[in-house]
Amino acid sequence: MTPRLSVLLLVGGTLVFSLAACDATAPADGSTSGLAVAQDASANAGGSERHKAVGSGYADFVLDGGAEGENRYWTSAHRDPNGRLRGTWRADVYIDFGSFVFDFEATYTVDCLEVDPDTREAWVEGTVFRANDPEFLGRRAFLYLKDGGPGGQDLHALTPLDDPDVRCTDRPAPDFMEEVERGNYVVQ
Question: Model confidence over 52-88: pLDDT tens digits?
């Protein structure tokens, strides 16, 4: 069953939907199975990693009014025991409104990573440094991830951050969440 979203996110009068991801290349067929998320092998050497949110997710959706879309997020976000962050995440959103198509692709820095290892939730904050539309450069957003664990349902959500005082450490509630249809997130 395709989820229905009733919320459109507006940032500065511009329609924004997001998916989070890191530097990775999606297969041409759009699947996320087998997608390798780029990560520095030294991150796990000697148990030097404190928290991470890695993986990818894909979901189809239908907006009120019938517009169909899909989103993909990839993320590779890491924080070491000294608090140093590294990684990137990527969001690709495609919506066919019939009379026009909204196609958003952006790659974000990892500016903040908040992880709840007990609930397997992560908030990954970032700033757009590469986008298919220069209007989005420098904009902030956070990617919410829920790792459903083995056999469980993963969730994801992308939410613009318009308030400069809101950080991922505040654990803001996402505007909406989507069930991941293909892919997997690992939050630790």
Answer: 999 999 999 898 889 999 999 999 999 999 999 999 9
Please tell me whether residue 42 adopts helix, strand or coil conformation: helix
Per-domain residue ranges for the chain?
A: 9-26+48-187
* Longest alpha-carbon distance in the chain: 54
% pLDDT > 70, the chain: 74
* Surface-to-core class of residue 83, CB atoms within 10 Å of its CB (0-12 exposed, 13-18 middle, 19+ buried): exposed
Please say whether the dihedral angle defined by the alpha carbons of residues 144, 179, 107 and 133, taken in this order, is positive or negative. negative
15, 22, 75 from 41: Cα distances, Å: 37, 15, 15
pTM of the full structure:
0.73
Any idea what DSSP says for residue 22? -
Q: Quick one: how far is CA 104 from the chain centroid?
A: 13
